[in-house]
Specification:
Elements: E1 17-18, H1 19-42, H2 48-65, E2 68-71, E3 75-81, E4 84-89, E5 93-96, H3 110-113, E6 136-138, E7 142-145, E8 149-152, E9 158-169, H4 172-177, H5 182-200, H6 217-232, E10 237-249, H7 251-290, H8 298-313
Antiparallel strand pairs: 1-5, 2-5, 3-4, 3-6, 7-9, 8-9, 9-10
Length: 329
């Protein structure tokens, strides 16, 4: 089995001729040709060779007019001449190039990205993609707002996750030639990367110093951006930012996980209450002993500790009871 991959294409930036200069030149040649044609026909003995040349020059000039094109800021055109890559024009403005450069088609790649529509199922229908034609590629930053995906995290819990990706084309040659349709390639690879990322981390309640999806959003977003860049770099795309926009347990386990989180919160609160109560009891006993307020033996000390712990840790309102007797009766 041959595992060798095709060599990646590299962008070659070229400069096209100034469109305004070529427009004036072609119009001047056209006017001169019309004048030559009129002069040749007015001669007493018209020159046949001159007439043929003048008539043939008109369609040539019309073909040359097809070489004009314009580029907006942050827009590029890939120049293809009979299947050969001749370079990429990145400078905005009005330009002129070889009229035989391939212009592409407005629906390039739309047939490949359209899935077969099943009867009564509109989810299998992908909308046709609009392309600017003339092999133009936008270099502007674009946003991919991914849909919610249902995946399993590291612990096997079903979760819902979604991400937003900000990307732009950097290598026009790779975007045009190394993948079939880079605009369809990006959402597919983004979904695959997000599924793989979710399976690498737990939703929450990880081990010590373990990165989780819920608690370490910055680290998870950086890991997602790194994986996306590795995948989308083959299409000449640079990922500027990738962040999670939605993260939640799947509906079927959401209630159970909510009860677990509530129980963990109650336990954590109880631990703090007990820790604070023990500190306060210790402080009270030390203050009583240092200030010689009362002398307590072990039995009375144990009774005081028990009463203080009940008062400090109890949830219900405490009603004091006055003891008029003695512990030794």
């Amino acid at each position: 089995m041959n595992t060798n991959q095709a060599a990646a294409n590299h962008e070659n930036v070229v400069r096209a001729k100034n469109g305004w200069v070529m427009l004036v030149l072609i119009i001047g040649i056209l006017l001169a040709d019309i004048s030559l044609l009129a002069t040749a026909r007015q001669l007493a003995q018209p020159n046949g060779v001159l007439l043929v040349f003048a008539w043939l020059l008109i369609p040539v000039l019309i073909i040359l007019l097809a070489g004009f094109f314009s580029l907006q800021p942050n827009e590029a055109r890939v120049l293809l001449l009979f299947g050969a890559y001749k370079g990429t024009v990145r400078e905005s403005g009005f330009h002129w190039g070889n009229p035989f450069y391939t212009n592409g088609t407005p629906q390039f790649g739309a047939q490949m990205s359209r899935q077969i529509k099943a009867p009564g199922n509109r989810q299998n229908e992908a909308p046709a993609r609009r392309s600017p034609g003339r092999n133009k590629i936008s270099l502007r930053a674009r946003t991919l707002n991914g849909e919610k995906l249902k995946v399993n995290d590291k612990r096997g819990n079903p979760i819902e996750i979604a991400a937003v990706v900000v990307w732009r084309v950097e290598e026009t040659a790779q975007a045009m030639f190394d993948v079939d349709d880079y605009e369809n390639y990006i959402p597919t690879q983004s979904e695959s990367a997000l599924r793989h990322l979710a399976s690498r981390y737990s939703y929450d309640d990880g081990e010590d110093n373990e990165i989780t999806l819920r608690s370490n959003l910055d680290e998870v977003s950086q890991a997602l951006r790194t994986e996306l860049q590795e995948r989308l770099g083959k299409a000449g795309v640079v990922v500027d930012e990738a962040r999670l926009t939605h993260l939640a347990y799947a509906p079927e386990i959401a209630q159970a996980m909510l009860r677990r989180q509530q129980a963990e919160a109650v336990i954590a609160a109880r631990q703090k209450i007990v820790h604070g109560a023990v500190s306060m009891v210790d402080m009270a006993l030390k203050e009583l002993a240092e200030k010689d307020v009362v002398h307590l033996d072990d039995e009375r000390r144990a009774a005081m500790v028990s009463n203080l712990m009940v008062v400090l840790c109890g949830e219900a309102e405490v009603h004091p009871v006055i003891n008029t007797g003695t512990l030794y009766n």
